[in-house]
Amino acid sequence: CIHISTIEQLDAFTEYTKEYNCEGLSHIYIESELFLQNTDLFIKLQNFNYYIALPYVMRKKDYSTIASLLIKSAQMGNRGFLIRNLEEYAFLQEMGYLGEIRTDAGIYVWNRYSLEYWSSRVSSVQCPIELNKKEGKSLFKEAPIEKLVYGRIPMMITANCVAKTTSHCLNQQG
Known about the structure:
The chain is of the alpha/beta class. It has helices at residues 7-19, 32-37, 41-44, 63-76, 86-94, 112-119, 133-142, 162-166; strands at residues 2-4, 28-31, 50-53, 80-83, 100-103, 125-126, 145-146. Helix 7 (133-142) links the parallel strand 6 and strand 7.
């Protein structure tokens, strides 16, 4: 699988697929932010099986934007959504979404009980980044699990203002 987080990566990917056969590539995750910035992406990606990766942090103020993305994506044929937290799962359930849901490594699947719980609710789970080979060995026997083997991972994910805890908040996004 491949995860696309910038327009440049998406352009490179689509150019690459014009020249090479990518039939074995079954999962493409694309950041929701890219669709919000450019709705033409739905048309550009109509020949691919892709999943929209929801934001790492989703606030209530984002619900209407994500809801419109959900409706548009259903009309344009995306395969499903990659969720990164429990709130996103609850949001999709409240919206009555019936398509595929996949979990990010942030949905902690540490043991067979959590794997059993999530496996009955989503199409696929990704094991936590911190899970080592010994810890993951028994989980991989239980069910198919995705594992990040190469790429960038966020160092810290927070909805809070980091500057506020160290000095003072500037009340700016980003």
